[in-house]
């Protein structure tokens, strides 16, 4: 059983594009700035910081991106 999102499929597609085209570049700037704070530290610590920051950005948007690459479930079937 899949959990139904509050947004329609088309709305989720539009919002996912906004997140990817606007939000992700902004997050990259923030993540790079935060990673720069660890510039004098060991390479292993920097790697851990970047891996964590690379995973953390998607967690709030997990339900938004789920099923976006599939066909529209609300579309009428093609004959």
From TrEMBL:
Checking InterPro entries in the record gives:
DUF2842
Give TM segment ranges: 15-37, 43-61
Judging by the UniProt lineage, the source's domain of life is: Bacteria
Keywords of this protein's UniProt record, alphabetized?
Membrane, Transmembrane, Transmembrane helix
What name does UniProt use for this protein?
A: DUF2842 domain-containing protein
This chain's source organism reads Parasedimentitalea marina
User: What does UniProt list as this organism's lineage?
Assistant: Bacteria, Pseudomonadati, Pseudomonadota, Alphaproteobacteria, Rhodobacterales
């Amino acid at each position: 059983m899949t959990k139904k999102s509050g947004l329609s499929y088309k709305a989720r597609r539009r919002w996912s594009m906004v997140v990817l085209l606007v939000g992700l570049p902004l997050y990259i700037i923030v993540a790079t700035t935060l990673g720069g704070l660890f510039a004098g530290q060991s390479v292993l610590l920097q790697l851990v910081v970047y891996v964590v920051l690379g995973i953390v950005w998607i967690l709030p948007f997990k339900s938004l991106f789920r099923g976006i690459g599939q066909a529209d479930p609300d579309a009428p079937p093609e004959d």
